[in-house]
Amino acid sequence: MAQIVFTCPTTAFKVQQCLLDDDGDDDSLGDRYVSIACPACTRVHFINRKTGKLLGEK
Fold first, then answer.
1. Taking Cα atoms as reference points, which of 35, 40, 34, 32 lies closest to residue 16?
2. What is the pLDDT of residues 24-44, one digit of tens each?
């Protein structure tokens, strides 16, 4: 289980989220995103499993 921290783009709060381990290795994750139900704003955000960045974040 991996822990990530990201900044909610709606509220600007820091949010900590647990991600379940994936069966693939880290190199196969590439630009794969997972949907996260944000507890800060109750919206869905897409987080890159490898980098922890939001979809569209530079």
1. 40
2. 555 555 678 999 999 999 999
